[in-house]
Amino acid sequence: MVRTDDVYQKYVSVLEEELLPAMGCTEPIAIAYAAAKAREVLGDVPERVFLAASGNIIKNVKSVVVPNTGHMRGIYAAVAAGIVAGKADKQLEVIASVTPEEIEKIKEYMKTTEIKVDLADSGLIFDIDITVYKGNDSARVRIVDNHTNIVLIQKGEDVILSKEISKDNKANNITDRSFMSVEGILDFADSVEIADIEHLISRQIEYNMAIAEEGLKNSYGANIGSVLLASNKSVLEQGGEAAIKLKARAMAAAGSDARMNGCELPVIINSGSGNQGITASVPVVVYARELGIDKEKMYRALVLSNLLAIHQKTPIGRLSAYCGVVNAGVGAGCGITYLKGGRLDEIEHTLVNSLAIASGVICDGAKASCAAKIGLAVENGIMGYEMYCQGQQFVGGDGIVKTGVENMIASVGRLGREGMRETDKEILKIMLDN
User: Fold this and answer.
1) Which DSSP symbol is given to 362?
2) d(Cα 141, Cα 160) in Å, to the nearest integer?
3) What is the C-alpha to C-alpha distance for residues 265 and 423, in angstroms, rounded to an integer?
4) What is the C-alpha to C-alpha distance for residues 192 and 201, in angstroms, rounded to an integer?
5) For residue 271, with 0-12 CB atoms within 10 Å meaning exposed, 13-18 middle and 19 or more buried, which class applies?
């Protein structure tokens, strides 16, 4: 594949669209972004706010700490932070530069302002619809499909922006992903000019390793990363492959520990998720550094891991009852396979084996236990490769396993998108049943 190929440019575009910086869990940040934009359109601080959000948004915002709010959690904190201190032009870094004085104003605003939240009845998986009021004036902003895809801006009765919402719930402003394949992704990873992706991958390494290190250094959430290291000291002392795998799991989990529990460091996301961005990158970096892999090969392995995570997640959709870190962990396992010299056969078997093991891990929103799921996902991705090395594999007909890697990805995509819809509804009912 060469730079002038259309497919080459599409792969670059996908990475540019997906490897974006974000501070905090992306769903509350998307709410804060919508709120900041609505206040900007209104031109004043609202005295009333009404938010309608889809079930998956509510699920992912309910329990997570919103950064730069003094460790407040949930939807109301996200709305208030966006209105009081948000800078809409920063998009997913909308509340990255909140001052201590503004944190106090956010708390006061929550106490004194009517903020009503309801379940959106649009039937869309990803829907944030906020209307703000000041006297007789109002402004409305709606985000659909992905975290920054504004489809409606309205001030009073005047429609400033209106975009058609596609019936299949696909975003209108991203590259069509139907061209992607495991074989094509490997070809691109092998042939990409490093200069074309260096700014994206170097930033991902810098941001995601920094938050992983922060998660190990200080106390966040359930401290899964630290628990893994503390309970396996003998493994670290012995060194070798087992120690590297342990470090990879622990550092990825630690990044989520910090991110889910109020750390104010940014991450580079993947498929709209910071946890998926951490999972697809941190284990690959840990392995590359521990094995003394050169920078270029590490970058190529990260390109592979990121794109495979995106490829798997595309048929499932941005939000689902299916935990997306499973896909990202599979991507990381394939990236590690690449670092060890694996080619298409090894990568395909790693991917199929890994998906066969852990597909079906549920997403019950963003919170501390995401870090434990990341530890599981990384272990799972590596196990898929270890099975191949031992001459073991799952074959078509084993449960949902299909013959052919693309068929397997489609099979799991169908499970996450269609099969788990009722599961998703039941998860939300359980979470809201206080």
Assistant:
1) B
2) 10
3) 33
4) 12
5) buried
What would the two tokens of residue 382 be? Answer: 């590596």
Q: What angle do CA 394, 252, 415 make, to 5 degrees?
A: 40
Helix pair 182-191, 405-414: axis angle to 10 deg = 120
CA nearest 83: which of 94, 92, 72, 73?
94
- Of 249, 253, 199, 254, give the one whose Cα is nearest residue 21: 199
Please tell me the pTM assigned to this model: 0.91
* pLDDT per position as a tens digit, 46-71: 999 999 999 999 998 988 889 999 99
- 8 Å CB contact between 428 and 58: yes
**Residues linked to residue 138 through DSSP beta bridges, in sequence order:** 133
Length, in residues, of the chain? 434
Beta-carbon contacts of 98 under 8 Å, excluding residues fewer than 6 positions away, are 68, 69, 81, 85, 106
The label of the residue with tokens 């694996």 reads 342
Domains and CATH numbers, the chain: 26-162 (3.30.1330), 182-432 (1.10.4100)
Q: What does pLDDT average to in each consecutive run of 10 residues of the chain (434 residues)? A: 94 97 90 97 96 93 90 94 96 94 96 95 93 97 93 96 71 82 98 98 98 96 95 93 96 95 92 95 98 98 98 92 95 98 97 93 89 95 95 92 94 92 89 75
DSSP string, 87-146: -GGGGGGTTTT--HHHHHHHHHHHHHSEEEEEE--S--SSEEEEEEEETTEEEEEEEESS
* Structural tokens at position 228: 């893994």
